[in-house]
From TrEMBL:
Organism field: Catagonus wagneri
Keyword Nucleus appears in the UniProt entry: yes
Stored CDD domains: GRX_SH3BGR
Lineage: Eukaryota, Metazoa, Chordata, Craniata, Vertebrata
Localization annotation: Nucleus
Signal peptide: none
Gene: SH3BGRL2
Gene3D superfamilies: Glutaredoxin (3.40.30.10)
Domain of life: Eukaryota
Identification of the protein by name: SH3 domain-binding glutamic acid-rich-like protein
Gene Ontology cellular component annotations, sorted alphabetically: cytoplasm; nuclear membrane; nucleoplasm
Record key words, sorted: Nucleus, SH3-binding
Keyword Nucleus applies: yes
Family assignment from sequence similarity: Belongs to the SH3BGR family.
Cited PANTHER family: SH3 DOMAIN-BINDING GLUTAMIC ACID-RICH-LIKE PROTEIN, SH3 DOMAIN-BINDING GLUTAMIC ACID-RICH-LIKE PROTEIN 2
GO MF, any single term: SH3 domain binding
Amino acid sequence: MVIRVFIASSSGFVAIKKKQQDVVRFLEANKIEFEEVDITMSEEQRQWMYKNIPPEKKPAQGNPLPPQIFNGDRYCGDYDSFFESKESNTVFSFLGLKSQLASKAEP
């Protein structure tokens, strides 16, 4: 499974851009394979994202804002959930991945 980060490349909101960059930089820095999915370029991908976010995770009003993070088809969470997992050092669990610490050990 590949981590998919749903982003909006043409967002006019600086806060959204910073959150998207934070997620992408973290994944790159930790060499976690991921794919960026730009919802501003594909209505089909935008609708897929909206449809696959669990109802209890959707905002009371409006649509969920990017970044939204999935592992394959499994919803991981939004930026706030990602940030919380980063702060508590549980990102790999949040993403549904095994910790890379074991794979980095040299024989």
